[in-house]
Amino acid sequence: KMSRGKEVMVMVAIIILSITIEISQAVHSSSFRQKIDSLHLDLKFTCEECEIGVGIIQGLIESNETESDVENFVIEYCIAKKFDMTDPIVCKGLVHLFGVELFSIIKLEASPTIVCGFLGVCAAPPIPKWQVTFPKEKPPHVPPVPPPFDADKGTILHISDIHLDRLYTEGMNTQCGEPICCRAANGIGNSTETTAGYWGDYNCDLNPPLFETLLSVFEEMDPPDFVFWTGDSPPHDIWEQDHASQINITEYITQRLQASFSQHNTTIFPSIGNHEGVPVNAFPLPPDSSWLYSPLAEKWADWLDMQAQVSFQWGGYFDMEINGFKIISINTNYCNNLNFWLYFDRTGDPGKQLEWLINSLQASEDISQRVYIIGHIPPGTTNCLSNWSGSYNEIINRYEDTIIAQFFGHTHIDQFEIFYEEMNDKKTRPTSIAYIVPSVTSYSNINPSFRLYTYDRKSGYIMESTTYHVDLPQANQNNNPVWEWEYNATTAYNLTTLFPADWDELTHIFETDNTLFQEYNTRVYSGGPNNGCDEKCRKSTICGQRSAISTLVVPCLAHFNISLEDAYVAPDLC
């Protein structure tokens, strides 16, 4: 018979498992999320009980209770209870992956308060704010001058969140109740609505046939000057991933992209997403993520120079010059609030990335060089730690005349974020714009998409943002996927230029022009199914657009007399 102490430990482990599943982006289908939510409500543990349970786990480790014994018991408990949502293979995979991380963290003598705070049972542990200092004072701001209409123009291709699932199988069940479906293991669909189409399904990740048609489009289009590839290559099968699988899928996509762009020797600039980690969101501080960074740096040697490779091998970030400009690829897993390892950083600047970013931007400012910044997680989302996001905002505002624009993915939907001179005051001058590209994967309820930016080769200014997508239902119905033009930003929103002030003005137009806003909302999902956007949703969306720091959305909502509890939050699709 189990002792009471071990019973408490097991229950805490189950809570850890259930909450981790929820917050780790594994939950996408509404039925799965509802079951998780009901589970959470049924297990009412106090902060004190959680701390006691974590202490018991630490005691078991100290008393030489093997990790496998504890893990196996939790697996058996998960399988026995099932919570009407998971099969044994999911239980085994999730318990093992997150168990390995949990034991590693506990062995580092993490206090029960920190562990339970991270899980949301206790108050979140404090994350230090890095003291931002700059080598030189900010020079007077120089307003941007629009490029002439006949400027020498080039294009930049932006792709993100491919999430390629090579196990996708036509005809399989799309509503399997697990984090990801459309695989042979899920069985055959029992209706038209629940049967995976040949070219894909809104409830599943990108399949190989559709991926190949996208590569064909890239091969046939006028070659872009360079490519931004902003992370998340693996599918959402997070319970069965390991180091080898994560490296393998990213290397496979790398090979296919290299083949598609080899004829024109196009440089691709990548960044790391949260789904490259094992388990998902887990990125220990340098150099303990070298298992991922080192092989990818080697694989990307055709794109990255030696200095960029060395930097990426260390911290998963790099900078590199091309055509007179600099590309800075940041590792946003250092702001990911689901990356437990960040709670062991006491500097506020994990991996010394922010310090490095300042030095890189200062070097560019000193020679009047313009910069593009790319990354995965947008700094204004709730997934980005507010202190890190605040420091990052300070850096963006300091170097606003050096930074042309920023480019992110992660959310799977079509969005943008605006930075302001005074971060707490949206009435001050806009300083920067972050483009958030919709995903290549259709997961979930998204038409697969990519984007081309037209830019002035002299100044670097973005002159047009053109989004393309494939209508997935039509592709399956006609057995003919067509990657077609969706919209141009300038014509869709009547914008003369695409400077930060133009995007800010657009948010004010959205306040009064609901027709234009609803057109925007349709494009958010790349024409995929959505439930529309009511008044609270519209105002919440506008606040998101004006908040490049997640915590600043609250005062914006207050301006519209909306509480945080009543605010609309875009579905978490990443």
Write the topology of this structure.
Elements: H1 4-23, H2 30-42, H3 47-62, H4 67-81, H5 88-107, H6 112-118, E1 153-159, H7 208-220, E2 226-229, H8 243-261, E3 267-270, H9 290-299, H10 306-315, E4 318-322, E5 325-329, H11 353-366, E6 371-374, H12 386-398, E7 403-408, E8 415-420, E9 430-436, E10 449-456, E11 462-470, H13 472-478, E12 483-488, H14 489-492, H15 500-512, H16 514-524, H17 535-545, H18 553-559
Parallel strand pairs: 1-2, 2-3, 5-6, 6-7, 7-9
Antiparallel strand pairs: 1-10, 4-5, 8-9, 10-11, 11-12
Helix pairs in contact: 1-2, 1-3, 1-4, 3-6, 4-5, 7-8, 8-9, 9-10, 15-17, 17-18
List keywords for this structure.
single chain, 574 residues, alpha/beta, 6-stranded mixed β-sheet, 18 helices, 12 strands, 39% helix, globular, disordered N terminus
